[in-house]
Amino acid sequence: MPLKVVAGNWKMHHGPAAARAFFRDLRSILDHSPIDPAAASLWVFPPALSLAAAREASDGLPITLGVQNIHWDESGARTGESSAEMAAEAGAVCVLVGHSERRHLFGETDEETARKVQAAWRAGLMPILCLGETLDEREEGRTSAVVLRQLDAVLPAWIAESGVARPFVIAYEPVWAIGTGRTASPSDASEVHGLLRARLRATVGERAVSVAILYGGSVKPENATDLLVAQDVDGVLVGGASLSAESFARIAEAAG
Ligand code: PGA
Question: Cα(207)–Cα(210) distance, rounded to whole angstroms?
Fold first, then answer.
C-alpha cells in the first residue's frame, strides 16, 4: 500500500486550548493503535494563532503542521497578514493555498493564488494548491476547464531555473462537496485527478508522479476507505471530520 496523506484543515476552529486537547486525545489514541508511518502521513492545519500550541502538544507525534494561508510578500505594511517566512519560522512545514473559502469568501484570484504558491517555495514551505469547481460549473460541463485553469495558473513557476520540479501537492476539492455532506464519488474524484495528473505529466513527464493529489469535500471515516483506494487519489484533505481526534484517527486508519 503506497503512502497516503491524511490532512486535517481545522479552518477557523480550535483555539490554543482546544488544539492542545486535540493532540492530547490523538496521542492517547495513537499510543493504543499506532498508525504505520509507511502507510499514512498525517498533516494538520490549525488556525495560525494555535500553531504554537499545536506544535508543543504534538511533540513526538508523527504529525506535520501547516498553516491555512499566507501573504505573498515577505514583510511590510499588510495589517492582519502573515508571510510564508513567518509561518516557516513558527514551525509550519506546509501551507494551504487557494482553498475555495479563500477564493469565494475572500475573493482570491488565480493570480494571487499563484503568488502565494511562489511565496511558499521561496520560504521552503510545501504548498497544497486547493482547486475545484462550483456546482454551477459542474452542471454546465466546465469542471475540466475550471480545474485546469486553476492548475495552469501556478505551473509556469513550478520548474525551477535549475530544472528541478519544486515540491507541490494538489487538493481537488469540488466546492459543492465542501461542508455539505455531499461527497464526490470515488470515480468522480479519480476522473478529475487523472486529468490533473495528465496535465502535470505533459509539463514535466514522469516527474509528475512526485505530486500527491488529495481529494477533499465531506470526507469522513465512513467514506474514507473507498476514496483512499480510488485510482490517482493520494490522500484526503478533511475539514469537519478532522476536528475530533477520534474521527481524524479513524480516517488515518483507513489509509493504513
Ligand atoms: P469538509 O471540508 O471536509 O468539512 O467538507 C474540506 C475542506 O474544506 O478542506
Answer: 6
Are 65 and 51 in contact, with CB atoms under 8 Å apart?
yes
Q: Round to whole Å and give the CA distance between 200 and 155.
A: 8
Distance between start and end Cα atoms, the chain:
8
DSSP state of 165: B
Enumerate long-range contacts of 160-168, CB under 8 Å, 24 or more apart.
165/204, 165/207, 165/210, 165/211, 166/121, 167/121, 167/126, 167/210, 168/117, 168/126, 168/127, 168/129, 168/211
pTM of the model: 0.96
Residue 209, pLDDT score:
87
Cell of 238: 478533511
pLDDT in tens, 8-38: 999 999 999 999 999 999 999 999 999 988 8
Ligand 1 pocket test: which of 237, 242, 243, 251 has the largest number of ligand atoms within 8 Å of its C-beta?
237
Compute the distance from residue 239 Cα to the ligand 1 centre, in Å. 4
Q: In this predicted structure, what is the pLDDT of residue 1? A: 53
Take residue 44 and report the three cell numbers written for it: 494538520
Q: Which three cell numbers stand for residue 50?
A: 494555535
Report CA Rg, the chain. Answer: 17
Å from CA of 162 to ligand 1 middle: 36
